[in-house]
Design brief:
Layout: H1 2-23, H2 28-49
Helix pairs in contact: 1-2
């Protein structure tokens, strides 16, 4: 049960950070790069919770 809660919280945090990046008054290219970085970090953290790494 603890694993599911951790995964859920991680997905929520990733979604919140992606939302905040979209709200920043930056150029479109910079926003895309930031979104890709957040997604990669999120995938890595999810894989760590699933004990892949």
């Amino acid at each position: 049960m603890g694993l599911l809660i951790s995964l859920f919280i991680t997905v929520l945090v990733i979604g919140l950070v992606l939302y905040l990046v979209r709200m920043l008054p930056l150029d479109g290219n910079i926003k895309n790069i930031l979104q890709i970085i957040v997604i990669i970090i999120g995938i890595i953290s999810l894989l760590r919770y699933l004990a892949v790494f």
